[in-house]
Specification:
The chain is of the alpha/beta class and 287 residues long. The chain contains eleven helices and ten strands. 1,3-dihydroxyacetonephosphate binds next to strand 10 and helix 10.
Length: 287
């Protein structure tokens, strides 16, 4: 059964580790992530962007697929199904479709509007026992066509949003979606510490988990980050393994590639990436 992310994140915050959010795009990615979470006894969050939801024909399909897998794969570790960077309308759709967690990304609105919209969703989520993530200070890079500048969040604004009763808060601390440029100055731990001081016990979320050096990840966890999002790294490992398989020309016996065999190396590559991240984040054995 899908669970809210609240309990797993509070435990992670107290235990000084982070739960990974791995984004899913199709059956293979989902299956790989769930298999590794179960194998390593790690809690896990499956992230779904609105674009990925659309690709999979809609949020109801995603809920049906994930619930089916939890049962058929006999998954016993805590799994949350979470909307990633949701719009107000998208968040409402996911709630209706059966997601156990949502993110409302109002970071591009003026703070008053971000507060107003987040509050409405907090009330709905409270009633239904769904966890909710809010964002202050946009994350850099590109996510589903939306480009953020990677600004650092204003700690006072973080407090205003945290006080609405969200479950977890994504605060921009110079993190970027996708690969980090060579001249990236690194995470702003100064901002992270200032945010933490304002929001107290609130579990913090680090987006853009691909390519952040291990020492920065560990320091961020020690300063209150309890959830780390990873997408691009799975995408890169999946693409590389698939490209290699095609280039090697395996399985072409007059009928093209067997779709299951074609996607198998990519699925294995995602497993390796997820394993590595769960070990780095410290969530192994914490289910
Ligand atoms: P990366 O694509 O950089 O791993 O970031 C993922 C993310 O933050 C999703 O919200």
């Amino acid at each position: 059964m899908l669970v809210s992310a609240k309990e797993m994140l509070n435990k992670a915050r107290d235990g000084k580790y982070a739960v990974g959010q791995f984004n899913i795009n199709n059956l293979e990615w989902t299956k790989s992530i769930l298999a590794v979470a179960e194998e390593l006894r790690s809690p896990v969050i499956l992230g779904v962007s609105e674009g990925a939801g659309k690709y999979m024909t809609g949020f109801k399909t995603v809920v049906g697929m994930v619930n089916g897998m939890l049962e058929e794969m006999k998954i016993t570790v805590p799994v949350a199904l979470h909307l990633d960077h949701g719009t107000f309308e998208g968040a409402q759709k996911c709630i209706r479709a059966g997601f156990s967690s949502i993110m409302f990304d109002g970071s591009h609105y003026p703070i008053a509007e971000n507060i107003e919209k987040t509050k409405i969703l907090v009330n709905t989520c409270d009633v239904l026992g769904i966890s909710i993530e809010a964002e202050v200070g946009s994350i850099g890079g590109e996510e589903d066509g939306v480009v953020g500048m990677g600004e650092c969040a204003d700690p006072k604004e973080c407090k205003a949003i945290a006080d609405l009763g969200v479950t977890m808060l994504a605060a921009g601390i110079g993190n970027i979606h996708g690969k980090y440029p060579a001249n990236w100055p690194g995470l702003s731990f100064e901002t992270l510490e200032a945010v933490k001081k304002e929001v107290g016990d609130m579990p913090l979320v680090l987006h853009g988990g691909t390519g952040i050096p291990a020492d920065m990840i560990k320091k961020a966890i020690s300063l209150g980050v309890a959830k780390i999002n990873v997408n691009t790294e799975c995408q890169l490992s999946f693409a590389e393994a698939t490209r290699k398989y095609i280039e090697e020309g395996k399985d072409q016996q007059g009928k093209g590639f067997d779709p299951r065999k074609l996607l198998a190396p990519g699925a294995e590559a995602i497993k390796a990436t997820v394993r590595e991240k769960m070990e780095l984040f410290g969530s192994v054995g914490k289910a």
